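Final report, results section. Input specification for complex C-07:
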Amino acid sequence: MSWSRFFRRRHWDRERARELESHLEMEIDDNIARGMSPEDARRVAHRKLGNPTLIREEIYRMNSIGFLEILRQDVRFGCRMLARNPGFAAIAVLTLALAIGANTAIFSVVNATLIRPLPYPNSSRLVMVWETRLPDLDKQNVTSPATFLNWQKDNTVFEGLAVCFNGTGVLTGAGVPEQLPEQLVSPNLFSLLGVNAMMGRVFVPAQDGGADANPIILSYPLWQRHFGSDPNILGTKVVVDDKPRTVIGVMPRGFQFFVKQQSFYPKPPEMWVPMNFTSQQASSHGRYLQAIGLLRPGVSLSQAQSAMTSLARQMATNDPEAMKNWGVNLVPLRTQLVGEFEPGVRYLQAAVGVVLLIACANVATLFLARAAFRKHEIAIRMAVGAGTRRVVRQILTESCLIAVLGGLTGLLLAWWSTKALLAFAPANLIPLEGVTLDLRVLAFTLATALLAGILFGTVPALQAARTSPREPLKEGGREGTGSLHRSRARSSFVVAEVALALILLTGAGLLLRSLTRLMAVDPGFEPKNILTAWVQLPLSKYEKDQQRSQFYAQLLSRLRQLPGVRAASADAFLPFAGIIAGTGVDVEGRPVLPIAEKPVVDVTLVEPQFFETMGIPLLQGRTFNEREGVEVSHKVVISETMAKQLWPNENPIGKHVTIYMKKDNVPSEVIGVVGDVKHAGLGAELRPTAYWPFPELSFSFMVVVLRTDGDPLALAPALRDTVLSLDKDQPVADIRTMSSLLSASLARTRFATVLMAAFAGMALLLAVLGIYGVVTYIVEERTREIGIRVALGESYRGIIALLLKQGMRLAGLGIVIGTAASLGLTRLLVKLLFSTKPADPVTFVTVVLGLGGVALAACFLAARRATRVDPMTALRWE
Amino acid sequence: MPKRGAPPLDADLLQGTLDLLILQTLVLGPAHGHTIAYAIERRSDEVLQIEHGSLYPALHRLEGRGWIASSWGASENNRKARFYRLTPKGRKQLARQTSRWNQLVSAVNQILRPAEE
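Structure output:
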């Protein structure tokens, strides 16, 4: 065998044909010379030589690259077989395409989120450095400037440590004032990540570490949108929060560094400014910074963790007042970024994998059914000399052909469904930009398709190889010995399909039940018809506390007069919007505890009428009056949980509590107790919460809440106009309804649940088709028997009952196996489930009854075909 | 009927033997397929009856390996025929294979002899 001969094999064939011809002629000459008649001479010569075609074939084979040639033949033949049976091919291809398409779509998400490296050159060594309140070792708490500087000075494991703070800034000076997410970063952050600017430069500690430097870096989208992609942007002055800054760089398109955990503002930044601590800030123990470290090469995560833990212990010894009971928790950046959705994505991947298995089983049964009709053809092929291996190979080629066609169609579906997925997926669910069909995804699809082809092709191929060439021919095409094996194989496929479908159905059922329970949770307020909007005042303009409280008070009084507004107020940290401040407290009259041992409560600022606007019930005492909205009064309203925790057996009204949020902490008098609010989400635990009136801290930002008569969004323009009527340069950001915030908080769970339910639905459909198919097949196989039974007087009802029994025995077996497997597997879902046990009996019973019922219906529909058997026709078939 | 489980060893052995016989025949000079077939039959006292057709795949194989070369010429009866001749490479092969064959034969004989006695 050689390549030159391979490509010239036709030439060689002609050559050898001529040679054989000349051999024959010489032999005939000799034979005539021996005295034979010309006919005899020719006949004997031919006998002596053998079959010239076979000889040529042998030589031709010698010239070909064996398996390529056979593959070519098989593929050609396979195409012919499929073209002759387009219905079969279409169903098989479509079934696979659905499953492969779903797998590809989910894999493209997996690829974008879990496989592809993070877009930072140093990504494998980047870790988030969180503080954690002991004894919890895995909490992720932001850190303080003092602690960060201490870490930076004394750690032995990091090449560098950086911090950032995700806030907002008002951009003025170029076009309309816009409030934008802004990241304050230590000047070394970009070099730590290993990224550079697309235009200009990133921050460098040497140049941007001073307090007088005022540079700013823009994101690519901001540069495009707000500055019209101005190529001469570098060096331009922009004004952020009334402070002039010089643009020194534009980051590359797609660059992002945003960790949501404990971010003050929950959106990825669009501009960056350097963060340099004043000496007063540098000694602050206020925790608000996200810290990120670059591990020294060769330092493992566990080494770093133990080094930082001992550093934390040392810091606690040096400064027990501030640092006692605080530890360090290192989280690799990748884990941090994918942690939120990794389990969900993994489960979805497992689920689509199961759908693919079911699809394979389904197509395998189709192949088996067809093999029954093809046994004649295969027997003939074997009779004329096809080896077992050759037959197996032929059928495997056919199944791979189907699989590849399914894969290609699936790729189309995936391309389309990935788009649909992204359109339907809630924003911020996954880093959507990265979800594309790249080479890795294509390779995955191809591999999946071929694997599927081999998976569903093997059993039918081996079954076909068992065909004895004699029997089907002898029996004139009726019952063969293979049929018993075949129906057994079909039965086990159906059992497996039902079992797998049941596993997915229970999984989806549990998630659905958990979601309905979650949605039924009372958030603690009335979320309907509430409009919310973020109003942040620039501190340069509204420098004094009094100015800010006046602004908000005026704004609210104007808003309350708008037609369609029932009530208006404001809150610093809205429920479901992200974070809330937290701090330690002391109850007056009890011993003052060290900082680390004080009870911790959530703290927010509210304007008067907040509880009335939100519909949070007042349980005891009173709420804030108008005066308390503009003057410092040292009053506080507390949540029910806070009341129970701090004054378990006392009436809290009139008691005093010191809430440590300021330099001079004055005890506040408890004037009211209100109902608990699920601030961190419907599934979260209740936390003690203190509501201070606005003047107590006079933040520079508040979220306005309006209770409206009708559609809240209809009031958005009026809200904006009202703000502008007070200050024409004041932007309003994040206008959203409370219901949308609430539903956004459930979006990820709902999305995963819907996808899971869709996959379970696909699985159910395929399994039901499988049962239907197997019963149909039984009917066809036993047409004669049914005919005889009917002829002998048995009722169709009895025959249907018999068929139902057969079908349901398979379904039942599948259900039993599936239930057992589910009981083991659903335990893996425990983290995703909200107040639902993995072995929730209601879900299991519903799924089992439902699947059983659908299976019964499918069996019945298929069995009804038996009534169409006419006994006379059936008997005459012989 | 499929030739299921036909032991491949036989085929290999026979193939090797046929190759050896062809090479041996060509030592005497170039010859075409028809001549080679009869020469092998005659020289083995008609013990080795080969189907003439099976000769051609063997010739093709040997030519592929470069042990023999071929060209068209005229036969004794003035018919066109393809003539094969031994190449230097083929001559070396023949020597090597002949000695291996002899080794094999003597080995087999040593095993067979005591059984005959």
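The longest strand of chain B covers residues 68-74. The two ends of chain B are 41 Å apart (CA to CA). This concludes the modelling results for the funded period.
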